[in-house]
Structure formats: structure tokens, C-alpha cells
Design brief:
Blueprint lengths: L5 H15 L6 E2 L10 E6 L4 E9 L9 H13 L4 E6 L5 H10 L2 E3 L1 H10 L4 E4 L2 E4 L1 H5 L21 H13 L4 H7 L5 H14 L2 E3 L3 E3 L2 E3 L2 E3 L1 H11 L3 H14 L1 H13 L1 E3 H11 L4 H15 L5 E6 L2 E6 L1
Parallel strand pairs: 3-4, 4-5
Antiparallel strand pairs: 1-2, 2-3, 6-7, 8-11, 9-10, 12-14, 13-14
Length: 322
């Protein structure tokens, strides 16, 4: 827990809550623009439903959450008409904060209880003969793509429509993020589309890969929105397309394979389409049969950058800096 960033800790808490609550709409709100609510969703139990909000604070040991934090969280819940709320921290709460939470009917989860919940329900840990061990796959889902000498094929996008990506993100927000639910929300998405756009969203930092959850005896992998994914959707919904485009451009620049192509354009002044394909062959683990298809998507992502333009180069095209 203590090794995560504050934003990663929000996603961690969302993944834990998703396994403990009967909800299919849980998501992380836009980071640092959430007005006191970090995670929200509808709880749907047999005898009641409620709009749920959670605040999350990743503190170091000894840095406690005080009464004033709980009071402000209560105000945020009331202002946005949430029916119930939970305050989660990696550290602990002061005695006045605990008393205030009782009066305000706010549930508190400190670091010890969060860890205990994860162990008891095998969330992020696996039981072994002599105790428990960290579940590497679970924690790997929290990480962002890493820079490597050779870019893994899974980090080369194959999703060439950002409009379709937005539909995919909206489908995640409205469902539990499983392939089946996404297909039900957007009939054009078959399971393969979900994987392609899920990976694209992950590369952009808009989506996180949740680890499989057992449903009716089978493992179901789900996608979830990160705070940047939520922010991207909200900007579009408000009609602030300029800010949404700026967020997208910044995200595209951070994708490792795009960064390498852009550096070539900066250094050489241009990048032909054939040189782009050669770069993919040399610097990625893509099979030769996949290079052409991925090159088309990489080319399209490059032209999202406002200072890169595709121009005609005989029967092909090249990319130049403008």
C-alpha cells in the first residue's frame, strides 16, 4: 500500500470495493477534481439501493486522518446527495475522527482493516501452505506501461478510432467492465474489440486492467476507468472538446512507441511510413505479420499530436514536424 502513488491507491481501493460490494457501476472520479469524493457508484442489494461515495487518503504510518477531514467528507456526501459513504486510509484515524464518523454514520476503514480485508478475501494476496504471498498479477494491474529497450507487442496500439474509444469508456462506466457487459451496452463491440480498446485505454492511462473475478464459477476479467478516463469523458460531456483533446494529446505523447517515433521525426525532420514499419519491426516484439496492421494505428496516433502532420510521399506518406 505504502509503495503506491496516491492515484494508484485510489484504484487499489476501487478494486477492493468492487469485490466487496454488489455494484456494477463503481468508478474512480477525476483525480484532484472530485470535490471530496474519490470513488462512487450504486450499491444494489436485495432490499435496498444507495448512491455510494468514498474518500481515499494514502498516508504514511503515523500521519493520521483527523476529525476535520471526516467533517468535510460528510459535507461532500450531503452536497452531492450520496446516501452512504466510506472513508479509507492507509494509515489510521484520530479518536475525534472516529467519534465524528459514528455521529455522521460514515464508515471508516484504516490501513490495518483494509489489509485484513484483502487477506481474508484473497484480494491482492494468495494463500499458500505457510501463510500468504503477494498476488503479482493483481498488483501488476495497478502499474503503468514501463519503458523497455524492446516495446512489448501488448504496448503497441491496434485501435484506430478515438470516437469508438469514448464509446468503450462510456460502456465501462455504465457496466461492470466485463467483455460481456460491454458488448451488451455497445453491440458493435465483440470480445476482441473490448481487448483492443481496453489495451488502448490502458496505454493512454484512461483504463486499468482489473484482475479476474470469479462469476458463476468462471474467471471474468474486467476493465475499469482511471481518474483520467473519467475526466476525459466528463470534459466531452460538458462540451469542452479543447480540454479533452489536450488531455488526449498529453496521453498519446506518453505512450512509449509513439514517443520513440516522435523522437525520430524530431531528429530526422521526417519519418516515412516504411521507416515507421521498420522501426516497429526492430524495436517491438511484434510478429512480422502484425507490423503492417499496427503501423496503421501508430500512424493515426502520431497525427493526433498537433505538431505532426502526414503528407503524401508518392504512393505512400510520411510524417513531418510542423
Amino acid at each position: 500500500m505504502y509503495e503506491t502513488t496516491p492515484e494508484m491507491f485510489e484504484i487499489l481501493c476501487k478494486m477492493v470495493l468492487a469485490r466487496r460490494l454488489n455494484t456494477d457501476s463503481l468508478h474512480v472520479t477525476a483525480f484532484r477534481q472530485d470535490e471530496g469524493i474519490d470513488i462512487e457508484g450504486y450499491i444494489d442489494e436485495d432490499v435496498f439501493t444507495a448512491l455510494f461515495g468514498a474518500q481515499v487518503k494514502r498516508y504514511t504510518e503515523g500521519n493520521t486522518v483527523g476529525n476535520n477531514h471526516v467533517q468535510r467528507f460528510s459535507g461532500a456526501l450531503t452536497q452531492a446527495n450520496y446516501q452512504t459513504g466510506t472513508y479509507i486510509t492507509s494509515s489510521s484515524f484520530t479518536a475525534p475522527a472516529v467519534e465524528a464518523a459514528k455521529d455522521l454514520q460514515i464508515h471508516l476503514v484504516d490501513g490495518e482493516r483494509l489489509a485484513m480485508t484483502m487477506v481474508q478475501h484473497r484480494i491482492g494476496v494468495n494463500e499458500i501452505r505457510d501463510g500468504y504471498e503477494v498476488d503479482g498479477e493483481f498488483w501488476e494491474a495497478l502499474k503503468e506501461p514501463e519503458q523497455q529497450d524492446t516495446v512489448p507487442s501488448t504496448e503497441v496500439p491496434l485501435a484506430n478510432s478515438f470516437e469508438t474509444l469514448r464509446l468503450f469508456l462510456k460502456a465501462i462506466e455504465k457496466t461492470d467492465g466485463s467483455k460481456r457487459a460491454i458488448h451488451g451496452e455497445v453491440s458493435d463491440f465483440d470480445p476482441r474489440h473490448a481487448d483492443l480498446y481496453g489495451t488502448a485505454g490502458w496505454l493512454l492511462g484512461f483504463v486499468h486492467k482489473d484482475t479476474p473475478k470469479s462469476v458463476d464459477g468462471r474467471d471474468v476479467r474486467r476493465w475499469g476507468l482511471t481518474s483520467d478516463g473519467v475526466k476525459y469523458l466528463r470534459l466531452h460531456e460538458r462540451g469542452d472538446t479543447e480540454a479533452a483533446e489536450s488531455l488526449l494529446v498529453d496521453a498519446v505523447r506518453e505512450v512509449e512507441i509513439i514517443r520513440r517515433m516522435y523522437e525520430l521525426i524530431e531528429r530526422e525532420g521526417e519519418l516515412t511510413y516504411d521507416a515507421l514499419k521498420e522501426k516497429l519491426s526492430v524495436e517491438t516484439t511484434l510478429a512480422e505479420t502484425s507490423v503492417s496492421r499496427r503501423a496503421s494505428t501508430v500512424a493515426q496516433w502520431l497525427t493526433v499530436l498537433p505538431d505532426v502532420e502526414a503528407v503524401s510521399d508518392g504512393h505512400s506518406k510520411k510524417f513531418v514536424q510542423i
